[in-house]
Write a structure and sequence with these properties.
Length: about 1000
């Protein structure tokens, strides 16, 4: 058997030496453009098996389009900014917090980031090459280059001019360790199940001492920030008295009716105890509670009020929510509506800012038990309970996240909701359900984009603010500060304003660039924040070309598009926009797929991509997420080194529908190698064994695209001029063109899985029917018409199949193609086109029926326990004979091994073995055993042999009777009976035939 990985290495060398990728681009240079965008990976981590999946799906489409004559540039790209890089740098420097970074200096930190960006670039390039993903790695775009950043600045300036960039004080998901807020996409990646203590707190009504309103919370650390309690005006609440209840102080309490009903049973139980009692005193709607004052938990504060809020539900807890505007989105909203103060009782490192309390300065999660204990001591806890729930952790550093009120910069995406949805309508999603589903839902609920990160290694926001309040107060006395803001769009503009030469746009260098405020003469300084790195990748369609700064990046078709497609902004289209095709994992739905659309919509352009394949994620065989800590990570190298890249690619193309998660099991890869690649390879081996290319009259080159067969109509009479008269030839050619037609239809719709699966059936038909049933023709002597027809047909099919499957399995197709031709590469060929005239549906349908009849016939044999080699007298089939041409009936006869076929009511096999049939069966067995021995001995068909047999007289009699047939079939010249021969056999073996012993020995004599 072929060593696939080794063969692939050989082909990689061939491609490299002959520059096949470059040639494929040169060949198509004048063709219509097919635009592809590469979603940039981070090169500071090693490529994983999921990258193989993405890249396989990208490559198949790109190769397909190239073979169809499109010009497909494939600019690689590298994502470099943001937390993934910063985390690695922190590890390298042995530091753990934002403070540490400030201590060692931003400059040193940035240098470390810069140096670690490409830690695994070489590994990535090798991986890309090894899996056969043709990508222009030499001209890759890099998100941290000055040019790239400048393009982002230009985009942000446009956003600013449209009034969509704004600063606001909002509650955002926040990582206290990284010291920055996160996007909702980032938050979605880090949910974990945890169990922690939840508490039900007693808030005493200010004007009704002894009456407590109950509030349930899982975050005691937010309580010092409490400024209100919220109830739902529509929910029913009850006031009840509790006496002598174990563990709870006597008193009068208020909670939702639903909450009360939940623990009614427990209360009833307690009631039976001596003296215990519970009594509902009043039932009321939430709206009646609004406006009541309650005593704050911590002294020195004025009493706060109960407010009404629709978001309060009684699904969980008491139906009363404690409001701390600094730590919740809803809280902030309620705070703004009710004019409540914002108490920031936690600092940016997640530590309590509550002087005079023992938990002051402690991290929030450490403060929780201390706060609870203090409330217990003061008899302000009604109940505590362990509570299991999903809690968000930082996807990078694993710290528990908090919701935290911060001043951040936002892009007003919510105002573009309609446009985003309209643009989404123009995108072809594969799988289609994502369009209205996961992606559409996301757009319908779209929130403003939290763009700023209080970090270091990222695209610095090009926003300069006047610092008059701090440094130049004396000049303008009338105002406390000047609110001038300037958003810079280019390096040139900044150099002009500052009078300085700008070398590196990163922090801290850019922070040193200041200029004079045009309003007040004060100093303009950059704000410290950098951009969300998802903004980098979402802007790649423009920034990869340094748009709009380089003159040659404007689309050649832009003259009509200049105004028509972008009236308001009046910008020319960048070249290669939009992408015809992009492809990434389903996890990018709310990541890159979104930010690409967001930025193009901001620029009032078409959606940045027309077609998108979004594939499922890779899990382990037990459907668990792969992770280092679980030790279940599969390295691409382990799969490729053992089974080859083609096999790994084909596994992902066929394992399940594109959007489903892939439960990666190496056994499935092994199975594909055996079933599909083994079979395909054997077809080629069969051809090369029986058809030396130098055969006379076999002018393959001339006939490469001219099949020799063709049956025009239902009568299955050969057309004039066709050289082969075999229905099998005609059938396989028809099958091929039908395959070709379907594969193209599927690939044009980006249905990769559907297209790939077609090859599985075809290769089965080719090997297990066409070749199997044509074997005898191939074995005929050279210069035989029948042999020539079969060879021509198989040559034609293999050659065109190698082209048709080349985008899917670039290596094995090249190997087969190279075997059939001697120059250039399969990847420089034109993609085959179906010839509809050669598709004969009727014939294919008939052949399908024939294969079905054979399957049933063989099943009947196996039920009766009769070997296939034992001839039988008759098979009845339900169709009138005339419907199936004789040639096909012959195929059934041979395959089921029967003497005769007659039309019956259903498929029936006559299983009676007459003495004559039995004798024939025995002879077949003898012949087969001798053939096997010839093979074992390594004899070629030309070799003539001597056969010696020894057995009991009955068997000997049968063999003697059929001696000539055996001699002919086994290419033997002589027969000897008994073991007493002078000739020493080459090999010998004992068999059992029909319960009798048979000894056979053979020896080459000529
Ligand atoms: Zn973090
Ligand atoms: Zn100013």
């Amino acid at each position: 058997m072929i060593d696939f990985p080794k063969t692939e290495e050989k082909i990689l060398k061939f491609w490299k030496e002959k520059k096949i990728f470059e040639k494929s681009l040169k060949k198509t240079k004048k063709g219509k453009r097919f635009v592809f965008f590469e979603g940039p990976p981070f090169a500071n981590g090693l490529p994983g098996i999921h990258h193989l999946l993405s890249r396989a799906f990208k490559d198949v489409i790109l190769r397909y389009k190239t073979m169809q004559g499109f010009f497909v540039e494939r600019k690689a790209g590298w994502d470099t900014h943001g937390l993934p890089t910063e985390m690695e740098a922190e590890k390298k420097l042995g530091i753990k917090s934002k403070k540490d970074i400030e201590k060692i200096g931003i400059k040193k930190f940035i240098e470390t980031c810069q140096n670690s960006v490409f830690t695994y670039k070489k590994e990535w390039e090798e991986f890309t090459e090894r899996i056969g993903f043709w990508l222009d790695l030499k001209n890759a775009y890099i998100t941290c280059s000055n040019g790239y950043i400048e393009s982002l600045w230009w985009i942000l300036k446009k956003v600013w001019q449209k009034g969509l960039l704004y600063q606001d004080y909002k509650v955002v998901p926040y990582c206290p360790r990284c010291g920055t807020s996160l996007s909702s996409h980032e938050v979605a990646q880090g949910y974990k199940k945890i169990t922690e203590e939840s508490i039900t707190v007693k808030f005493e009504l200010a004007d009704e001492p002894g009456i407590y309103i109950l509030v349930w919370t899982t975050t005691p650390w937010t309580l010092p920030g409490n400024v209100a309690l919220a109830v739902n005006p529509a929910i029913v609440y009850v006031k009840f008295s509790l006496k002598n209840y174990p563990g709870i102080s006597d008193g009068i309490y208020i909670t939702s009716k639903k909450d009360f009903d939940n623990y009614k049973k427990e209360i009833e139980k307690a009631k039976s105890k001596k003296g215990a009692g519970v009594e509902i005193l009043e039932q009321t709607k939430g709206k009646d509670l609004i406006g009541k004052k309650y005593k704050p938990l911590y002294p020195n504060r004025a009493p706060y009020k109960i407010i009404g809020a629709d978001f309060v539900s009684n699904k969980e807890g008491t139906g009363v929510v404690h409001i701390a505007p600094a730590f919740g989105e809803d809280d902030m909203k309620a705070g703004k509506e009710n004019n409540l103060p914002v108490l920031t009782t936690v600092d940016e490192q997640g530590r309590m800012l509550t002087k005079d309390y023992p938990w002051n300065g402690k991290f929030i999660k450490e403060a929780d038990p201390l706060i609870t204990q203090d409330l217990k001591n003061r008899d302000l806890i009604f109940h505590t309970e362990d509570y299991e729930h999903d809690y968000p952790f930082c996807w990078r550093c694993d710290s528990p996240l908090l919701y935290y009120a911060k001043t951040s910069w936002f892009i007003k995406m919510s105002s573009l909701r309609k446009k985003l949805l309209e643009n989404n309508k123009k995108i072809n999603w594969i799988p289609n359900y994502l369009k209205a589903g996961r992606f559409g839902e996301w757009l319908r609920e779209i929130k403003d984009w939290n763009l700023s990160r209080e970090r270091f290694w990222g695209t610095p926001l090009p926003i300069w603010k006047c610092q008059i309040g701090k440094s130049q107060k004396s000049k303008v006395k009338s105002q406390k500060y000047c609110d001038n803001i300037k958003v810079i769009e280019s390096i040139k503009e900044l150099e002009k304003l500052s009078g300085k030469k700008i070398k590196d746009l990163h922090r801290p260098y850019i922070d040193e660039i200041t200029f004079k405020c045009e309003k007040c003469g004060g100093q303009m300084k950059r704000i410290p924040e950098v951009a969300d790195c998802w903004f980098d990748s979402g802007s790649m369609p423009y920034a990869q070309w340094h748009y709009p700064f380089d003159p040659d990046i404007i689309s050649s078709q832009s003259s009509d598009n200049y105004v028509a497609r972008n009236k308001e902004l009046s910008i020319p289209l960048p070249k290669n926009f939009p992408a015809d095709f992009i492809c990434e994992g389903i996890d990018q739905t709310r990541g890159w797929f979104y930010t690409l659309l967001a930025v193009s919509t901001l620029l009032e352009l078409e959606p940045a991509y027309k077609n998108v394949i979004s594939h499922g994620i890779v899990l382990d065989a037990k459907a668990q997420k792969m992770s280092k800590s679980k030790g279940n990570i599969v390295l691409p190298k382990d799969v490729i080194d053992k089974w080859g890249a083609d096999c790994a690619r084909f596994y992902f193309y066929t394992i399940n529908s594109v959007g489903e998660p892939k439960r990666f099991d190496i056994k499935d890869v092994q199975e594909i190698s055996r079933r599909f690649f083994g079979t395909l390879w054997n077809c080629w081996i069969f051809f090369s064994t029986y058809t030396p290319l130098e055969i006379n009259g076999f002018q393959q080159k001339r006939r490469e695209n001219k099949p020799l067969t063709g049956y025009s109509d239902k009568s299955f009479k050969p057309k004039k001029g066709f050289e082969s008269k075999s229905l099998l030839d005609c059938w396989i050619i028809s099958r091929f063109h039908n395959l070709c037609k379907q594969v193209i239809e599927d690939l044009d719709r980006y249905y990769v899985v559907e297209a790939a699966r077609l090859f599985e059936d075809f290769v089965d038909d080719l090997s297990n029917w066409y070749i199997r049933r044509s074997r005898r023709r191939f074995q005929k002597s050279e210069n035989n018409k029948e042999k020539e027809g079969a060879c021509q047909t198989l040559y034609y099919v293999l050659l065109n199949l190698s082209k048709l499957i080349a985008p899917f399995t670039p290596f094995i197709s090249e190997e087969i193609y190279q075997g059939l031709k001697t120059k250039d590469s399969v990847h420089l060929c034109d993609y085959p086109k179906p010839n509809k005239k050669l598709i004969n549906k009727e014939l294919e349908e008939r052949m399908k029926q024939v294969r079905e009849i054979v399957t049933i016939g063989l099943a009947h044999r196996s039920e009766a326990g009769i070997k296939v080699r034992q001839p039988l007298s008759m098979l009845k089939i339900p169709m009138a004979k005339s419907q199936i041409p004789n040639e096909m009936l012959e195929l059934i006869k041979e395959e089921v091994n029967v003497k005769k076929i007659i039309g019956g009511k259903k498929i029936e096999l006559n299983t009676k073995i007459t003495p004559k049939l039995k004798e024939e069966g025995i002879i077949r067995e003898v012949i087969r055993n001798i053939q096997t021995m010839r093979k074992r001995a390594g004899y070629i068909p030309k070799d003539r042999i001597l056969v010696q047999v020894s057995c009991n007289p009955d068997l000997e009699k049968i063999i003697k009777k059929n001696k000539n047939l055996i001699l002919k079939e086994t290419r033997a010249d002589k027969f000897e009976f008994g073991k007493k021969s002078k000739q020493k056999p080459a090999i010998e073996q004992e068999f059992k035939i029909d319960q009798q012993k048979l000894w056979i020995a053979i020896k080459k004599i000529k």
